[in-house]
Amino acid sequence: MLRKLINILEPMTVAPGIVMISLSAIALGAAFGGYLPLIALWMETLDVSFQQIGIVSGAAALGIVSSAFFAPRLAQKYGYVATINFGLVLAAIMTVLFRYTENYAVWLAIRFVSGLGLGLHWVLTEAWLANIVSDRGRTRVMAIYATAISVGFGAGPAIIWIFGFATYTPFYLIAAFLLIAALPIYMLRGHEPKSEFSGAGSPLLLIRRAPTVACACFVAGGVDLALISLVPVMVARSPGAEPVLALSLVPAMALGTMLLQYPIAVMADRYGLRKVSIIIATTGLALCSLIPFFLDSIIIAISVAFLGAGLVYGLYSIGLAMLSKRFTSGEIVAANAGFVIIFEFSNLLGPAVAGVLLDINIRLGLPIFMMCIGAFYLIISWVRRDANLDK
């Protein structure tokens, strides 16, 4: 099976790396998907407030953003493989240490350092792919990478289902997944892309040179986390809603992000990145905005959530493909670092804005949020319509 996958991907790349980076991404996604609910559930047993749990979880995002600024310099000095695997080992150590303390300030520090380590993998593996992928299959390879992370993210919570969250065992298992993620990267030593680095990562580079790419990243990050974090609460508080949807909509959205990435990439390669990005953005956001109106119908609600979330997240894969087309090999690491920073910023801003709108009107808040962010993307795409993103 692995040999068939390699044969399919080989014409799309100019150097080894795609399969191993994707395998690493699956393990990393599993660690991400299991660790986030694990620490929240464990802290809840210690009577930690929801606000404090949210702050601890957000500390990792600050670490990821910080790592994006320094990843280009570290990779230039120590190489991709050493920098990525150092980050994974650091994150694995922090994962275990988190369970051995109940000090809130130490938790914040551990999560921040863990985010630093995870961010090095995120920034540099995406930049690595952008360096080695040929124009022929650029979008499809990025979609495979995004799908790999989604598969791992969806499988990660199984650790909690099997081993619970009160013991030390799941923390060690999450750390083990991070170390497993380092093995495929280690096997790529000697195959690192050769490129000159143009400086530290900054979102300003991406916003200035490729605002459409930055906007695609912002939409994908803001909408994705807003849906995951707020839709279950919206279901619970909506009169007449089917209670089962509180537990089934998020898995449906996760399944949509896994299954729709590659078909979207095939369409983008055939019809053009910009054209397909506009279609999936408008269609996906429109479908997502319909969710509050069908909470009394399990089939319809799950269907629109599956399709809407899957289409919107396709902007992430297309955004990566646009980025690798617009920037030279020496600029890719810095540009991709900016991509990650914008994504994390939108992860923080999107749920906050959507939450305010839902507090104002639980039925119309989500549609208004979707329409506004969709209009923002369409305006940027129209203004930048002459930019060459498809050739």
Write up this protein.
With 391 residues, the chain is mainly α. The chain has 2 domains: 16-186, Growth Hormone, Chain: A (Up-down Bundle), CATH 1.20.1250; 203-383, Growth Hormone, Chain: A, CATH 1.20.1250. The protein has helices spanning 2-9, 18-45, 50-78, 80-98, 104-132, 138-155, 158-163, 169-186, 203-209, 211-237, 245-271, 273-290, 298-326, 329-360, 365-383. The longest helix has 32 residues, at 329-360. The model has no long low-confidence stretch (mean pLDDT 83).
Mean pLDDT: 83
Give the number of helices.
Answer: 15
What percentage of residues falls in helices of 4 or more residues?
A: over 70%
Task: Kindly give the count of domains.
Answer: 2
Task: From the structure above, extract its key features.
mainly alpha; Growth Hormone, Chain: A; 80% helix
Produce the secondary structure layout.
Elements: H1 2-9, H2 18-45, H3 50-78, H4 80-98, H5 104-132, H6 138-155, H7 158-163, H8 169-186, H9 203-209, H10 211-237, H11 245-271, H12 273-290, H13 298-326, H14 329-360, H15 365-383
Summarize the structure.
The chain is an all-alpha fold and 391 residues long. 80% of the residues lie in helices and 0% in strands.
